[in-house]
Amino acid sequence: LNRGFTEMHCMSGHSNFVSCVCIIPPSDLYPHGLIATGGNDHNICIFTVNSPAPLYILKGHRNTVCSLSSGKFGTLLSGSWDMTAKVWLNDRCMMTLQGHTAAIWAVKILPEQGLMLTGSADKTIKLWKAGRCERTFTGHEDCVRGLAILSEMEFLSCANDASVRRWHISGKCLQVYYGHTNYIYSISVFPQCKDFVTTGEDRTLRIWKQGECAQTIRLPAQSVWCCCVLDNGDIVVGASDGIIRVFTESLERTASTEEIQAFENELSQSSIDPKTGDLGDINADDLPGREHLKDPGTRDGQTRLIKDNGKVEAYQWSVSEGRWIKIGDVVGSSGATQQTSGKVLFEGKEYDYVFTIDVNESGPSYKLPYNITEDPWLTAYNFLQKNDLNPMFLDQVAKFIIDNTKGQTLSSSAQFSDPFTGAGRYVPGSSSGSSTTAAADPFTGAGRYVPGSSSDAVAPVGGVDPYTGMGAYQSAAAKLENIYFPKKDAVTFDQANPTQILGKLKELNGNATEEHKLTEDDLIILGKLMSATCNTSAETPTSQQLETLWRAVNWPEDIVFPALDILRLSVRHPTVNERFCSEKNHVQLTILLLKFLNPNGKQANQLLALRALCNCFVSQAGQKLMMEQRGEIMTQAIEMKSGNNKNIHIALATLMLNYAVCLHKANNIEGKAQCLSVISTVMEVVQDLEAIFRLLVALGTLISDDTNAVQLAKSLGIDSQIKKYASVSEPAKVKECCRFVLDLL
């Protein structure tokens, strides 16, 4: 009698690991239903039951798809590490749910029409109705990993904080269940009742009845990733040892005595690492001997540790069998805990270090796990990829890893600084796990909005992706790959603190003369424009908003800077770019911005005008305008070289880089000549290495694939002008990029 399951198909369609699977119920078109899988390749594959190749592939997420849930009428809800959930109908994306600030690990469609749930690494759960967020549930203290529906009105959630919570959809938390000793990854409900099962990083499957943990089943694997209850009440679990196991209460479906014995043997031979904390803090010297197993246990799943011939063994009490079952040997138990072992647990794996990285003030902080045996560049690269962060940061993150792990002993109490915020990072065994220091924006010295203050931080620049650099860290003998140019896309200035910008605008509005003063309504309108253009709302900027902005940017020079900052951010939005840069209005925009590029003007205005010009390059209309007005803009911009403000120099270098990108595409030799001449002039005076780096990328982009431009650059003596940068030791990207440019010359 075969009580097991047999493999019908091996389906393939993803180019990387599959992270979630879900059944789409039968429909008229597909009477057997469909199978949906989400993968690390950012795609969702849809299969029919009887074919190994996908029926179709859903593309749209920008990172791993890690959870799926199907609803009525062929709807599918997907959650991704890209912080969004998407609603699909057949092969089309209908809606994108935006609002979480970290990866969405769990999604569920509620029985009631149009209601959906998402659980996220930002520790919250959101309830969505027809694509809009209705409510946010807070209470979990760590990533929410799983969701399960109890009824139309109630649901369960489990999280990395080792708790399960029962919620009413009105927002109230009805109950919290404790039992697991580590992350809980998965939760599933029994049919027709409120009992449920959970699995987690503590090697267990736990069965909950009437709100209590009624049974604990240990497995010979550290991570029990997923569980599901079948219609017949059997429980299926998948674990990190690559094995799927089915547990049943039914006598006729129980495995053979040999299979059960094999499972127990496997369990008794597994080694339990005390550092995981699954068995509490262990001190081998205090443990009793084998005689301790003569006393029966008091509850099912109770664990007892004994010491036998110097070895520590773990046993678990089984009520049904009335005996202690060996569940493994405890290895290395010298009373080690996470604090004393020097290892840090992150997402179920052990690392030598787990750094907390804050990229900007408004966003979430990210955990960067690292083992001393790993390549820092590869770790940095994978970290940026995984969190969908700007590849521009590669050098910074890799250098941060190298600096903060160099010869450090784990007990060191030295303070390490985070590459983005200068704040302390997470040192294993320290009490606080996250750095709360806000990122320094060039504008917010000590948390206030001070434009152009020469803070050391440079606003993160969008887009330069030279640093996807596997080639970045190699021995000198290896051939370095040119990851710097030709640059294909414009670089933009995206960092923003909308609250501070609007706060400053309100403050200065108080000092404005009557003719310039904005009304309360105007300020609200500008606030809406900010949220529409800084991606915090899905709304499109309106004509009324843009007219209000236009009035504000025509304020007197001494108070205009917050309005210029709003313009700088807004012009990245396609609607605004089209409106301000199109045939009808474009002359006004260039006249306005060039007026601020006056050597005797205020530095804040110069900086923001340059950044606004850089950001014009994001859309077709802006590129066309920038190219048409190139002569005037370059002539005026070059005047900005004379100051000593490095942020202005970086913005100026970025403007040249964006021109180089356009000129490389258009292959316009007169334009290239003009741009080379400006770069050469600016190189004479600029000291800041980030600005130099951008000028070098611009140079390389201009002369790539164009022998005429190479000749032109040589005739301007650019090769001898840049030679000195080939020996710069830090940052390495300056030296590398410079050498690639010199190779072309």
Topology:
Layout: E1 18-24, E2 34-39, E3 44-48, E4 56-58, E5 65-70, E6 75-80, E7 84-89, E8 92-98, E9 104-109, E10 115-120, E11 125-129, E12 132-137, E13 144-149, E14 154-159, E15 163-168, E16 173-178, E17 184-189, E18 196-200, E19 204-209, E20 212-218, E21 224-229, E22 235-239, E23 244-247, H1 257-269, E24 271-272, E25 303-308, E26 311-318, E27 323-330, H2 338-341, E28 344-346, E29 349-351, E30 353-358, E31 365-370, H3 376-386, H4 394-405, E32 461-462, E33 492-493, H5 498-511, H6 520-533, H7 543-553, H8 561-570, H9 574-581, H10 586-596, H11 603-616, H12 620-628, H13 630-637, H14 646-666, H15 669-685, H16 689-703, H17 707-715, H18 718-722, H19 732-744
Parallel strand pairs: 24-27
Antiparallel strand pairs: 1-2, 2-3, 3-4, 5-6, 6-7, 7-8, 9-10, 10-11, 11-12, 13-14, 14-15, 15-16, 17-18, 18-19, 19-20, 21-22, 22-23, 25-26, 26-27, 28-29, 30-31, 32-33
Helix pairs in contact: 3-4, 5-6, 5-8, 6-7, 8-11, 9-12, 11-14, 13-15, 14-15, 14-16, 15-16, 15-17, 16-19
